[in-house]
Structures are given as C-alpha cells and as structure tokens.
Amino acid sequence: MAAAAGPQDFVYGEEDFVLQGAGWGDEPGSAPSRFDRALLESWDDRMERGLFRYRLGPLPTRVLPGPMRLVAQLNVQRGTERRPPQPVRSLRQPFDPAAFHFGRLRPAEGLLRLRRAGPGPGPAAPPHLLVAINASPLERGHVLLLPEPGRGLPQALTAPLLRAALEAALLSASPAFRLGFNGLGGRASVNHLHLHAFYLRRPLLLEAAPARPLGPRGGPGLLRGVPAPAFLFYAAGPAELERVARDVCRAAEHLADSGLACNLFATRGDPPGGAAGGGTGTGSGRGLRVLLWARRPSFGAEPDAPFSVALCELAGYLSLPAAPLYRDITEEEALRVIRQPLLPEPELLRLGEDLARLLAG
User: For the whole model, what pTM was predicted?
Assistant: First the structure.
C-alpha cells in the first residue's frame, strides 16, 4: 500500500465564506464548496487506505416518532472498535503527555491545515487548525479540529479555537456540517484540546426552535422545546464570530468556576427568534447557532446507561451501538437518558440570569 500524503494546506479568505446559508437536498446553496470537496475527498482517500479503525458504509438511520424528531443511527463498529475514553477526574485536569494525545497521530491522518490568508498569526487572526480524521467516525467526514497539537493544551475551550472552528463552518456550503465540543466531565474522551466536525444529513429541531432572550439584544438566549434545553448564541455573519466565540468561552469558564461541565454544538440555523422571515428554516437568512449546555459532571463509566450523553445526544442525534436498542428505543426513553445530567429548570434559569449579567458587563 502506498503511503498516504500528509495534510494539505488550505488557505482561505473571507470570499470563501458561504454567507447565504445552505439548503437541504436540491435547494439552492446545496452544491459543495471548495472546503467541502477538499475535506471529503481527503477523508475518502484515508478510508480507502485503511487508516480508520473500521470501514464505514451507509448507516441505518431513522427519526424516532415524537415531537423532538430525534435522529437515531445504528453504528455497531463505533461501539466496539472505538478507543476507550481516558479517565477524567476533574473539570480542570491537566494535560498528561503519557496518555494518548493527538501528537501521536500518523502524518497521513492529517487532512488539511486551515490557514486564513493575510498577515501572520496575531491578536486579530484565528490560529491555524489541523483537520485530522476521527479514527472511529460517526459519519462520513467526521474529523477533529486541532489547534497546535504540539503545545499539549488540555480540553478547555478557548475563544481563538472556537472562532477558527466557526470560520470553518462558514467555509462549508452544507447544512449538514456540524461542530461540537465535549468538555472535561462532559464525556470528553481525550484530554487534548480538540473540536469535532462532521456531516449529519438530517435536520435537527434545534436549528430553528425559538429562544427566550436572557438579556440585551445580541446576548444569549435560552433554547427550550428541544431535546436538551441550552443557552443559545448566534452569529449572523463573519463579523460576529469573534464576539460569539468570546462570549461562549466566558460562559463556559463561568460554568467550570461553578463546578459544572459543558458541551457545545454549532450548526447553521435561524436567528434566535425562530425561522428566518417566518419561513421554513432553510436558505438565506440563516447564520450560525452555537448551543452551550450546562450539566452536572460525569466522571467514570456508566455501565447501566443505554448510551452516553455527550454533544451529539444533547443535540438530538443518537449514535447507538446495538441493533435491538436502535430498533426499540422510544423518544420518551431517549429523553429520560439525555436529560438526566442536566440542571433542573429553576437552576438553569438562575444560571442564565447570571450569564446574561456576566456578558452584559
């Protein structure tokens, strides 16, 4: 087998951002962007070369009956072949160079080096990102976004990383492109700073559900009526990414100071008031929705739980390891598991008021 190439430089500018949103199916805007083509072609190449833990084909997928429209997917091999999660004992656990980390990736596991065109790194420039395969993928195109893996940073969200990842989301023309982060105590499996990105080709309720404002216009809102209530931040376009990244990370830091873990999910979506222009929740007018969940920390295995609750499950996407579970699970059963680590509503509302004051100051 010939050696696979290492990561390719992907230089982009603001002209590469897809600003008019993206459509599902054959709607305008659904053609892949330069970024989508580069990522998926290199990902497919690594799959053909056998660099993943298993060969991923089409996965059985169904929407569970019920108002939450949970997306269930059967992925038996991820359940059996995935690297066991690292033990996490603290919300602020330091990086351990003796444990597995992304500095150990083979060169061929890197796909792209994302770099913003223009002046070199500085306060105004997002960091370069290494896009690498997730060796135990959820879906086609499942990758890791890694900022300077050689620095050995722990899994604590930073504003420069989040801004760079949100720029990557704007490089995609697909509404299926999603970003996510699992914090320590929020089912992060590797304590080395990274985000997930993947293509989930099913719409989710949280893309268009309206949010209740928690403070001044432009601040966070509380998203209810979704599988897992969350704090919602919104960027209408590139000019708002730095503010949103800063606010989300200040909020996440406040959660950690309060003894709470967090998860994050970012997707194309409607303004906080709901479907843009009163429409169907697709097409122009959609920006980036960033959801932040506060949760009680989860440390160690939960052998009796039918599935772990991390960013995907909170968003309403269930990757299930066994055919009977996939076949039989109901929305009611799934929601009971998903909501178990979340805060009671009165506590969540008080926390939201605290965050609104913090970010308005």
Answer: 0.94
